Structure formats: C-alpha cells, structure tokens
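quick one before i forget lol
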Amino acid sequence: MDYHPLLVSVRQNDLMPWNAVVVDPRGRVIVSAPRWTGNRGPAVAIAMDNGELSAYPDVSWNSWKQGDDASHAFVSVNAIHESGEGEIWVVDTGTPEFGGTPIENGAKIVRIDSRRDRVMRVYPLPSDVLRPHSYIDDIRINGKHAYLTDAGEGAILVLNLEDGAVRRLFDGETFVSARPGDKIIVNGKVLRTADGLALRVNADPLELSPDGKYLIFGPLSGPMSQIETRYLDDGSLGEPLIAHHVTTWFADMPPVGGTAMDANGNFYYTPLADNSLMRRTPDGVISTLVRDERLRWVDAPFLDGKGNIFLPVPQIDGAPAFNDGRSTMKRPFQLYRLNLPN
C-alpha cells in the first residue's frame, strides 16, 4: 500500500513558539518554549484546541521575572519529556538569554505527576557540573538515572534520580562537539550568531534504545554516537574508560531540529535543510516520510505510541538571536500530527 502523508494541524497560537510537546495520559497537549525565542506565553502550557494556553503545572511556576528566586520557577525551558508512566520531565536551562550563563538556581530538572498536576521533585543542576555557557538541552530517563545533553559547552550529564547527584562526562571530546566546518542551513540560509559566526550546537539530540541498553547522542549537526548505559551508570569508572566505549552509530546524520525513537528502534529525525521528517530503521534503511515547507525547523518530535508523531514548528531560525535582534517567525505557530506508515 502506498503511503500518502497528511499533515494535520492540531494546535496553533500567536504567542508561544513551542519547540517541545508531549501528550499526557489524559490526552492533553502540553507544550513549552524557551524565553529567548520571544515567547510571550507561559514557559510550559496546556495547549487548548481553541488556541488558548493554560500555564502548567500552575501560574506560579510560570511567573519568574529577572531578580526572582529561580529555584521553583521556570526561567527558560528547552525541553519536556513524557516518561510513558504519566510523569513529565521539564528541562529548565536557567539561561534567559541565548548563549548566556545559567543564573543561580536556574538550571534544573522538574519532575511532574501529570495525573495530579503536582511537582514531585526538583533536581537542581549544581554549579560544579555547569560551565559559563552551558545550555542543558534535553533529557531521557532510564530506571534510576537520567541523561542530559549540554548543547552549549558539549557534555553528557548523568543524574542519579534517587540521591540527586550529577556527573559531567566527556568535556572536550569530539563526539559531543560540533565540527568546526559544520553549518546549520534552513531554507538556504546559514544560521549565524550575533557575532556573525556560523552557529555551532554541541551535544543536543539524544535517544535511548527501546531496551535501555544504549544511549545515542551527538551534536545537532551529527554524527550520532552510542554507548552502553551501564558504563554511564557506574560511578566507579573513570571518564577515560567510559569514553573508550563510545562508538559511532549514525555517521551521516545531517543537521536536525529534533529526534525520536519508537518501541521498535526506528529513529525519526527532522533534517533542517529541506524541511523534512525521515526515518532510519534498526538495520539502517533510511526513508523520507514527508517533506513540506511548513515544517520550518521542526524541533523535538513526539511519538504517542498510537501510530502518530507530533511535530512542533517553532521556526527557531527566525528567532531574534539569529536575525540581528528581530524576529522573522511567522504566526500562528503550528503543531502538526502525522500518522506514520507501518
């Protein structure tokens, strides 16, 4: 049977350039957006089908302003992740400005029970595992541990979910660092920072194999590497020994907005250069599922486990940080759903 992709717009709004989405067990669509994108809505919100945004888990968590204590409020959220058990994990970079330094108590992971909309625990990311330009990007959960990427300075963080301890690994390693000559191109334009240099994003996408045995990770512009999680979880191992077990997983992955992996090990990714969604099967077969000009910088896709993938379109390349201080984003911001082929 031929596959004819149909993008369905399921949510849209004028305020929030959402770059992440989850659908909770109650069927609610929960989205987030970093402060530096020009977000005029909440940091995290329930997106209603009528376009309204309801601050999540409550207004207090979404009311931070410069000078406030940041320990129990969202400063700038880059990612949200649903564990499959009704828990939502919020990644707060703690960095109000793009490329800035995390503020005191700002960088943290917030664990929320979506069934009761209650914060279960806050995991602060201590200053000794952060660097001046750390940008904690995304998270995956594996039993008693969580893994995070530092897209600003290039590293993997391992968070012990029981005692809250955090270890920083792989500083300076090539497999967490964007290659000097790589360029991020969207709609024919090379993304550049305020200083005119081509934007380089270090360790960014990450996925867990369905059995939790491997962590897959890499810079935004590739390649993707892998390591057995048992090496990451063993706090007695020295960093050089752990690094020795990192191997290449997907050498030719292009610059992407985001990734997802399903229960069968299929790897979905969104190449930025041609506004597409692609799939790589466990045996390495690559196919294009959809290519559409509306998919301008699709960020973190979300698989609902029911045969659908949700594609948030924040148009990150249009943020003021990459356009001499002015936004080129086109409103309304869209969230699309695509029914996947078997």
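fyi The radius of gyration is 18 Å.
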